[in-house]
Design a protein that fits this description.
The chain is mainly β. The chain contains five helices and 58 strands. The chain folds into three domains: 77 residues, no CATH class; 117 residues, TolB, C-terminal domain (Neuraminidase); 293 residues, 7 Propeller (Methylamine Dehydrogenase, Chain H), CATH 2.130.10.
Length: 687
């Protein structure tokens, strides 16, 4: 933690309005307001030569000594890191509300659970998924499914990805594993409550449907006998007279919807869709609306008809649907549309993933990749971001010609900041079906975003598709030239294994080179292609494979990938590569850090901080011995002596993995940005 004392005197004497307002805002009951006040104080109180000069002038001026001493006694404790304002506030995939709809829970794609006690006006983090043990009973794991009893809001069910189903009867104060002895209840169980009878519960597992008539004490299977579905979900009709269940049939590759009118004893097939499964069901009286990734059906349980979809939605994936006074609301992976007589786009959501639409009394909520939005009529929307901090930052990249300009990549979009993380703007989204996983900048400052199948290049203000090779990792050197490593997940494919390739036509064609014979021909790979700054023909390639359990396959080439030799030294798993301006290459794994000053011919090992599990690395620009190391535990370590010693620098960071780091040591103060897994961006200054 850092402390600023006499600076309060300076700013107050200078009648600094932002500072005085920030002091008042620290007393606010709103967590969002207090957080913004901390950011203001963080910026104003960062030690700098300008601060020291201002202090000297104030002390030399004619000032009441008692007032000066009284103001100087005020202390403000500031953490090392503070949250940065960032447009994206979390990919919300699941949602539950209490009966009175004032108590809400929402789950992000990373498994973080947010809670609202005021019908979504403000939020606070309830559970940091996968990264902590929560409450009595040691609830842990990733939580994709939540449900709250409509009869007693203190009863909550969490369905985890692999640790089973957990129940709380005291609103989350304590937890117990629920029905752990039943087969198939290990992962992704959804609990659904009868809307009228608190004794009746349904449980949807991937293979079966179960029913309980005694509040979950005992269960019996009510799965349709003729079905072999991979079940997705269940829903009761508002009066409880019907149950709709849907999923995908692996036998005929069809998505199917079933209905039961006798509590699950008999089921009738209502709809079968070729190649896709229903995702969302809306019941409005006797009317039924069925939404699949690319189709929309309306009617009754006895007769459904396919209806038109918005033209701009063609080729995109539909996520959620609901009725509002403005008309039918449709949420997709890249925006939202409303239909009264014809479909119209809701422009505030352009380029935004809409995960869930719901109605709470007279208010409509949209859970999106940019946070939560509310509307009274379904047409005019406003953000409800207070307390939300949910973006997953996959990587940072910076142009070496403009050191204050930083780009960030999330699971859905790319953002730019021209003031090293203080403000951000959206520069690209909707990068196809596969989530973007890499962000690069070439020597001319051109940006590239890549997924496992496609690369997109930013030309001016637009993005253009450059290459489409499945299971490929790219490193772009210019508009036309790139290196690539290809693999395949299909072990039976004739071209399985690892291949290195060069393209000089913007990725349209690849010319393959040969790896050394002793490199195993493995299928599932993770590759990092590092090109030395001073010579694009010098490459360091790190390979991680399923079979190579305790070995890093590190290769180097001096001739642009035409010939390769193994670089011995680094060991471990999941290597991270980075390079300083003086040409030193860092390779960090789970068991150590290695440094090479000769393009990987020789490596010198340095110890890692005790208990650290590295997840990101950034090397100083002015000082090549300065390195920041982010870990899966939510810690940041710093070394100024090339890794011989480390000190912790993580006050204020959440206990989630730090997946991206970027450091700027070119100014009078050390600046850094930490990108977290599902908790946004944090900014460091003045260390």
């Amino acid at each position: 933690m850092r402390s600023a004392a006499t600076l309060v005197t300076i700013l107050c004497l200078l009648q600094d309005d932002p500072f005085r307002q920030a002091l008042e805002d620290l007393k606010s009951e709103s967590p969002e307001t207090r957080e913004k006040a901390q950011r203001v104080l963080f910026d104003l109180c960062a030690p700098s030569p300008a601060y020291r000069e201002t202090l000297r002038k104030c002390l030399e001026s004619e000032t009441d000594p008692e007032a000066l001493a009284r103001l100087a006694s005020i202390r403000i404790d500031l953490p090392d890191w503070l949250p940065a304002e960032f447009p994206e506030r979390g990919d919300f995939i699941s949602f539950a509300a209490s009966a009175d709809q004032g108590f809400l829970l929402a789950v992000t794609r990373e498994g973080h659970v947010y809670r609202s006690d005021d019908a979504g006006k403000s939020w606070r983090l309830f559970y940091a998924g996968r990264f902590q043990q929560f409450g009595k009973g040691a609830l842990n794991g990733y939580i994709p499914h939540i449900s709250i009893s409509p009869h007693d809001p203190s009863v909550i069910f969490f369905g985890t990805d692999q640790w089973g189903t957990f129940q709380s009867k005291d609103c989350g104060a304590s937890w117990s594993q629920f029905n752990s002895n039943t087969s198939g209840w290990r992962s992704n169980v959804k609990i659904r409550f009868h809307p009228k009878d608190p004794r009746i519960l349904l449980a949807c597992t991937q293979k079966d449907i179960h029913r309980s008539d005694d509040r979950g004490a005992t269960w019996r299977a009510v799965t349709p006998k003729s079905s072999k579905l991979h079940w997705n979900d269940l829903i009761f009709s508002p009066d409880g007279s019907e149950i709709h269940g849907w999923g995908s049939d692996q036998a005929d590759n069809k998505g199917k919807l079933f209905v039961s009118r006798d509590g699950g004893t008999e089921w009738n097939e209502v709809l079968a869709l070729a190649g896709e499964s229903p995702d969302s069901i809306l019941i409005d009286g006797t009317n039924l609306v069925v939404l699949s990734p690319r189709q929309l059906w309306m009617g009754t349980s006895n007769q459904l008809a396919r209806v038109e979809v918005p033209e701009t939605g063609q080729g995109r994936y539909f996520r959620s649907i609901i009725k509002s006074p403005a008309g039918l609301l449709l949420g997709t992976d890249s925006g939202a549309w409303v239909k009264k007589e014809k479909w119209e786009e809701i422009h505030i959501f352009s380029g935004t993933s809409i995960w869930h639409l719901t109605r709470l009394k007279e208010t409509f909520l949209a859970f999106t990749s940019r946070g939560v939005f509310s509307s009274m009529d379904g047409h005019a929307w406003s953000s409800r971001l207070e307390g939300l901090r949910g973006a997953r930052i996959r990587s940072f990249v910076r142009s070496e010609n403009r050191l204050q300009t930083v780009y960030a990549l999330t699971l859905t979009a790319a953002y730019a900041s021209n003031d090293f993380g203080r403000t951000w703007s959206l520069i690209g989204g909707n990068f196809g079906h596969y989530a973007p996983c890499s962000l690069q900048v070439d020597q001319d400052g051109r940006l590239f975003v890549g997924s496992s199948s496609t690369t997109w290049a930013r030309d001016g203000e637009s993005w253009n598709k450059r290459s489409e090779f499945m299971w490929s990792t790219y490193r772009w050197l210019s508009d036309q030239k790139c290196y690539a490593v290809r693999g395949t997940h299909d072990h039976s494919a004739p071209d399985k294994g690892l291949k290195f390739a060069v393209s000089t036509d913007a990725g349209k064609t690849l010319r393959y080179t040969k790896f050394p014979d002793d490199i195993p021909s493995l299928a599932a790979i993770d590759a990092q292609i590092h090109v030395l700054r001073k010579d694009e023909n010098r490459i360091v390639l790190a390979l991680s494979t399923i079979e190579a359990t305790r070995k890093v396959w590190l290769l180097r080439s001096k001739d642009g990938g035409e010939n390769w030799e193994e670089s011995t030294g680094p060991m471990g798993k999941e290597p991270l590569l980075a390079e300083s301006l003086d040409g030193c290459v860092w390779c960090v794994t789970d068991i150590g850090a290695w440094i090479s000053s000769d393009h990987g011919a020789k490596w010198n090992r340095s110890p890692l901080p005790e208990g650290a599990s590295p997840s990101s690395i950034s090397v100083g620009i002015k000082d090549p011995s300065l390195v920041l190391l982010g870990t899966r535990e939510g810690r940041v370590y710093r070394t100024r002596d090339g890794g011989r010693s480390w000190d912790r620098l993580d006050g204020g960071l959440p206990a989630v993995p730090i997946d991206a780091l970027v450091v700027n040591d070119t100014g009078s103060e050390l600046e850094a940005l930490a990108g977290t897994r599902g908790m946004g961006i944090f900014r460091l200054m003045g260390k």
